[in-house]
Amino acid sequence: AQTVTQSQPEMSVQEAETVTLSCTYDTSENNYYLFWYKQPPSRQMILVIRQEAYKQQNATENRFSVNFQKAAKSFSLKISDSQLGDTAMYFCAFMKWQGGSEKLVFGKGTKLTVNP
Amino acid sequence: KAGVTQTPRYLIKTRGQQVTLSCSPISGHRSVSWYQQTPGQGLQFLFEYFSETQRNKGNFPGRFSGRQFSNSRSEMNVSTLELGDSALYLCASSSDRGPNTEAFFGQGTRLTVV
Prior knowledge:
The complex is a heterodimer of chains A (116) and B (114). Chain A is 0% helix and 52% strand. Chain A has strands at 3-5, 10-14, 19-21, 24-26, 32-39, 46-52, 60-61, 64-69, 74-79, 88-96, 105-106, 110-115. Chain A starts with a strand and ends with a strand. Chain B is mainly β and 114 residues long. Classes of the chains: A mainly beta (116), B mainly beta (114). The A-B interface holds A 33, 35, 42-47, 50, 52, 91, 93, 95, 97, 100-109 and B 3, 31, 33, 35, 42-45, 48, 50, 55-56, 58, 88, 90, 92, 97-99, 102-103, 105-108.
């Protein structure tokens, strides 16, 4: 079974600064996908960024980028130029895909607070 | 384009009762997944439906069941409610199966069992 670990329950950062959220996972699969989701107080989960395990290039979406280390099974999220609207719970998630599994396995989350 | 709609938003039930939660996916989406979110266990996968068929199921007791209708709307049912069933239940829809299609989440139904 796959597990996802987020070792930082809470983090805070000053507006405009950069913050990195950590995530490690455990799997014996070779083909899988990794995700970071954001859950603001409105409770709606929003996809931030996605990484395919077979791609060595780290995914980037505007101010959000990942550092994917497949051998170390590490998938950290870097948020640059933090904004007040980035305040939310952030969840790292794993999905194996072999033509049949649609299940996301989530970590316990990191609560990020951006301070003005 | 309307997002994923979950109803009701809040629900209070008594132990032993049953409850039905509803999820209307984004128009055209055929895949619907359900997750339970609690402070202790975090987010856990319940089940996934695609074209009215359950494709995947998580490790939950048989009291948890679901179905999907021909219009892709989905319901989940919990019978004989227990205090531990208190949680936020999230529904996600996607246009197709697989990780290359983005899953869009609803705002959830907050179930409180007393």
